[in-house]
Design brief:
heterotrimer, A mainly alpha, B mainly alpha, C mainly alpha, A: mainly alpha, 19 helices, 2 strands, C: Helix Hairpins, 76% helix
Chain lengths: 494, 480, 127
């Protein structure tokens, strides 16, 4: 059993999906989803601890066919770190989903909703575990297609979900297709699709124009998928108009997986010594990252709808991860991994709390949360802590992310960029404080619906809040794991 | 009591007080009484710690490799802890009197965040490395925000936004950048006597790094980052008194001084001449703030600008980079605290007793509130720097430091500043005692504020006096 | 020059790719976008399949004859997978178009934007 864990990690949610579609009884589909995501989370924890203790890479041959003939699943320090994030958030989001989905989606569609839910989670887990480049594409599309459908299911409440889902589909498919083009070029050059094999064989042909073009196409496709500025336009409408549970899940996981895939391809296959990577591509990613950080933060300041606000904020946070990648150093990659982890926690907390509000009154905006601090203090406090974590206040996970990110920049003497990173961080104060003032320093208008909070509303968000503070204080395990992950791609001292 | 237990007590007692405030929210006398009691115990612990030799470290936890939260008292930190610890119970007593006398609301929320702010100040004072200091520095900002916006009016909220905006922006963009820069350059964040930077950085860049700290430490109210201080005067006077005359601004200049002495190192600064620009900026801040103070007729506004000017003295002392100047700056932390808190206490007493806030209306008030105005006079003399008040010593030491370093212009600045202080503080005393009564006064009978307010202000005025004679205890030796 | 002719398949691929991509970006009608997307994806299929062709190779079906030269079957397999993905994408895409048409009454981008903006402005003023 134990040796099959890598494949079970993906298989359980994957096979559960068609099963869920058949379960028409009340909440049965949800129950199945809960069970399977819980199992997936447990498996990811086991895999993580196994990998940490032995320090070795677990390789699982599908169907017994060894690499490079067959497809293999690889659990190394990097995938072992990302898997618990994805499955953990999926699990917590599933817990919250029951109430949120009940409120927002027609009862006849619940079974199908959870089928798509499980598919998208399976797809994300697959992208992280697999060691074959084309397999990444397959799982990427599995996850994306079900995501398009999930976003569209928000149409019951808000019909703008439909054009949002369509745009997401168009841009997402374009991105995935670019990835495939790049992969085709790589296959032509090396004759293999296995990631480890690719990186070995690529060394012989790395100075060719075809190899660089392959890098360009793959990177571009993944930039689109991770919503790096300026290819981020699909994200805000998709997350804003999707059902609340979907926003929570996707905001915390989908783009993170694409960041992981980017790191895996760019550093794992091409490698930091690839001609043109460290300077040209690094500089490009740094620039786009900092631009995204500012654009996202400034746009968030102007927003009144909370989902849109935090979606814009996600653009900024993805910019920070890009900065970590662009620094082209072990510390930079570690910082990117740390922020990948922490941002997933923070955004999950925020979107789950906002979802609880949106499920009650239809829309979470500056207007609908006026005076909410007294009526739903626990929910609003969750948003407060999440917001403080985004700014990077000490003792939250966001602070640790910023510390290492700026350290990575300063180690390469990028002082100006470090200052800019902090400036955009400080700007986040503006939109967080708007929310705080609206919730606590204003009175609830007469005639506004009374907000209630029951444990089902705030417990999932608070699980994430506790994790955010926990990893802000006891950051050692995360930092060590992140450096271990970074060293998979770039060797060297800390 | 073991050394590290004392440190824990100083950090934990304010937290305990805040928790008890919440628990006892429905019993106002018990709630405020326990805060006062705990405050007295804290003061005793601070005095005890001050008398001890160094060497105790309290390690709390490690965020990650090289990032510890730990506390290591040293002379400067112990002095700040002493100031905060002793003035806290005095201010608590005053606060109780003010809040009840002025009819303020939300006492519980106020007392809760007050105690947390003191906890944060203790954390800053006793911090053993830059990370711990930064963490508590931020905690202080966020815990004082509810105090600044306490009244809940639109002006209070606006002031709160300016307060938070300037302090958080400066600390995140500049201070944190400086801290991480130090981390990257020296691979450590710990404080060390003589500084940790020498040898790790090209002397060309030291002024820039220093600038990151000087402007990043917004709480020191160095111009042009001073706007938050007058804006915060919208808060109730006890907030202004303790936090802005003592804890928040003192945390700022304490941090500047600590960084100058224990991160950069006085000798390193002097040899590289990196703090010369700061001497000029601090001098400008001193004079400009005094000139603005003269133009303000709102008492609290005038006192606010006076504070900005006085804080400049401490920054100046750090920038002069001699042992004498640094000692003078440290002494000034204590002297100014005692003096300024007296002045703010008097301002609050005047408001509660007669609802007056403008100086022009305080003519003849000295005869109606003789105790208050006498205390005010004592506090003012300390600020001006006249013996036998404490401020005289720190001024003399700063002048000595300027001479040591060849900055003769600074002597002129200090003397001119004393003159300006005389003008704008003396005006208030003169109006009070010697001017004909204004229309606002209803009767000539003596009417002071309640005893719970008058007692503290007398105590702090006497402290200013006592400090002059006991000054030996407060002169710190920074070597060099 | 002979190189250009020898690589005619790549030129075909690029031509299709750009036609499809242009349609996706420049056309405002949702159906046209989907058509463009399909053409775009098809060009990629062509890329893979044409690169898999081995000169004088035949279809990769085992005949038992040891001397037969086969074209590379792996790209064929990859493209089969990609075609399935493409079909699924097309299905979801057209389903969305139908829903949008039912809900908004139009499938033209500019009209949709106008309607949505009007809704958003109304919402913002009520916020």
């Amino acid at each position: 059993m134990m040796q099959h864990l890598p494949i079970l990690q993906v298989l359980l949610p994957l096979l559960g999906a068609p099963l869920a579609a058949l379960l028409r009884g009340r909440d049965m589909a949800w129950g199945l989803a809960l069970l399977l995501t819980g199992a997936a989370f447990l498996i990811s924890i086991i895999l993580f601890s196994q990998q940490q203790m032995t320090g070795e890479t677990l390789v699982y041959d599908l169907g017994g066919w060894p690499a490079p003939i067959g497809i293999v699943y690889v659990i190394d320090a990097a995938s072992a770190l990302v898997l618990p994030v994805i499955s953990g958030i999926a699990f917590v989001a599933t817990i919250a989903a029951r109430r949120l989905v009940e409120a927002e989606i027609d009862a006849r569609d619940h079974a199908l909703f959870y089928a798509a839910w499980l598919l998208t989670i399976a797809g994300m887990l697959g992208q992280v575990t697999t060691g074959d480049a084309f397999n990444i594409f397959v799982f990427l599309e599995i996850s994306s297609l079900s995501a398009y459908a999930l976003v569209a299911m928000g149409a019951g409440r808000d019909r703008r979900a439909l054009p949002a889902a369509f745009n997401y589909l168009i841009l997402g498919t374009v991105g995935a297709t670019f990835y495939v083009i790049g992969l085709g070029l790589l296959y032509m050059l090396t004759g293999t699709l296995n990631l480890m094999d690719l990186s070995e064989r690529l060394a012989d042909v790395q100075s060719t124009r075809a190899a660089f073009t392959a890098l360009a196409f793959i990177a571009l496709g993944l930039f689109l998928k991770m919503a790096l500025f300026p290819l981020h336009f699909w994200l805000v409408p998709a997350y804003a108009h999707a059902p609340s549970a979907v926003s929570a899940l996707m905001a915390a996981t989908a783009t993170k997986v694409s960041v992981y895939v980017l790191i895996r391809l760019v550093f794992g296959v091409f490698g930091i010594d690839f001609p043109g990577l460290a300077d040209a591509v690094g500089l490009l990613v740094l620039t786009l990252g900092i631009a995204g950080a500012f654009v996202g933060t400034l746009a968030a300041i102007l927003e009144t709808d909370l989902k849109k606000l935090f979606a814009q904020s996600s653009i900024a946070q993805l910019g920070y991860m890009a900065i970590g990648i662009g620094a082209m150093s072990a510390t930079g990659l570690a910082a990117a991994f740390i922020h990948l982890f922490n941002h997933a926690l923070m955004k999950a907390a925020l979107f789950l709390a906002i979802g609880a509000i949106a499920a009650q009154v239809g829309r979470a905006s500056m207007g609908t949360i006026q005076g909410a601090g007294r009526q739903i203090p626990l929910t609003m406090t969750a948003i407060l802590v999440g917001g403080l974590a985004l700014i990077g206040v000490p003792l939250t996970a966001g602070f640790i992310s910023k510390l290492y990110l700026v350290r990575a920049l300063l180690e390469q003497d990028f002082w100006l960029l470090a200052a800019l990173t902090f400036i955009s961080s400080a700007l986040a104060l503006a939109y967080v404080w708007k929310i705080i003032e609206a919730a606590w320093l204003k009175e609830r208008p007469k005639g506004a619906p009374v907000l209630v909070e029951t444990p089902v509303h705030y417990v999932p968000a608070w699980l994430m809040v506790i994790a955010t503070i926990g990893f802000g204080i006891f950051a050692s395990p995360l930092v060590d794991a992140a450096y271990a992950a970074a060293h998979v791609f770039i060797g060297g001292a800390r | 009591m073991a050394g590290d237990m004392l440190i824990l007590a100083l950090l934990g007692l304010p937290l305990l007080a805040s928790a008890l405030v919440l628990v006892l929210r429905d019993k106002p006398n018990l709630r405020d009484g326990q805060a006062l009691l705990i405050g007295l115990i804290t003061a005793a612990c601070a005095i005890e710690l001050y008398g001890r030799a160094d060497g105790d470290t309290l390690f709390i936890l490690s965020l990650a490799v090289g990032l510890d939260i730990s506390f290591t008292p040293e002379p400067l930190g112990k002095l700040f802890a002493l100031v905060a610890g002793v003035l806290w119970p005095v201010a608590t007593l005053y606060t109780v009197g003010y809040m009840r006398g002025a009819g303020e609301e939300n006492h519980t929320r106020f007392m809760f965040f007050y105690a947390i702010a003191i906890h944060a100040a203790m954390g800053i004072a006793l911090s053993g490395n830059l990370l711990t200091l930064f963490v508590f520095y931020e905690l202080l900002t966020f815990s004082t925000y509810p105090l600044v916006t306490h009244k809940g009016t639109p002006e209070a909220m606006r002031a709160g936004r300016i307060y938070l905006g300037i302090l958080v922006a400066s600390s995140v963009i500049l201070l944190l950048l400086g801290v991480i820069g130090i981390w990257v350059l020296t691979s450590t964040l710990d404080f060390a006597t003589g500084g940790i930077l020498a040898g790790h950085i090209d002397p060309f860049y030291v002024p820039l790094l220093l600038a990151l700290f000087a402007f990043g430490i917004g709480k020191a109210a160095l111009m042009p980052l001073h706007r938050w201080l007058p804006a915060a005067m919208v808060a109730p006077t006890p907030v202004s008194a303790l936090l802005h005359a003592v804890a928040v601004v003192k945390a700022g200049v304490f941090t500047v001084l600590k960084v100058a002495v224990y991160v950069f190192g006085i000798d390193f600064l002097r040899e590289t001449g990196s703090s010369d620009w700061l001497v000029w900026l601090a001098s400008f801040s001193i004079l400009a703030a005094s000139i603005v103070a003269m133009s303000k007729t709102n008492l609290k506004a005038r006192l606010a600008y006076s504070t900005i000017s006085q804080l400049g003295y401490i920054v100046l002392g750090a920038a002069l980079a001699t042992s004498l100047a640094a000692s003078g700056a440290a002494l000034h932390i204590a002297a100014h605290a005692a003096g300024k808190i007296t002045l703010f206490f008097c301002a609050g007493a005047i408001y509660v007793a007669h609802h007056l806030t403008d100086i022009k209306e305080m003519n003849g008030l000295g005869r109606v509130m003789p105790v208050t105005f006498t205390a005010f006079a004592l506090g003012a003399l300390s600020i001006i720097g006249v013996p036998p008040l404490a401020g005289a010593w720190s001024k003399i030491m700063l002048m000595g430091g300027a001479l040591d370093n060849g900055h003769l212009a600074v002597l002129a600045v200090l003397m001119l500043s004393s003159l300006l202080n005389l003008v704008y503080l003396g005006e208030i005393v003169l109006r009070g005692f010697f001017a004909a009564p204004s229309h606002g006064l209803k009767s000539e009978a003596v009417q002071e504020a309640p005893l719970t307010m008058v007692l503290p202000l007398c105590l702090t005025a006497l402290m200013s006096l006592a400090l002059f004679f006991a000054v030996d205890v407060f002169i710190l030796d920074f070597g060099g | 020059m002979s190189n250009l002719i020898a690589h005619w398949n790549y030129f075909l691929v690029i031509a299709l790719m750009m036609i499809g991509f242009y349609a996706v970006i420049a056309r405002g009608n949702m159906v046209k976008k989907m058509v463009g997307l399909t053409i775009f994806q098809t060009s990629v299929f062509m890329l893979y399949i044409s690169m898999g062709k081995v000169a004088n190779g035949t279809a990769p079906i085992l005949t038992g004859d040891a001397t037969t030269l086969y074209a590379n079957p792996l790209p064929h397999v990859l493209i089969l997978t990609a075609i399935v993905v493409g079909v699924a994408t097309t299905a979801v895409g057209y389903a969305l178009i139908i829903r949008v048409y039912e809900s908004y009454g139009t499938i033209e981008d500019d009209e949709l934007i106008k309607i949505i903006e009007a809704e958003e402005n109304a919402e913002a003023s009520n916020a």
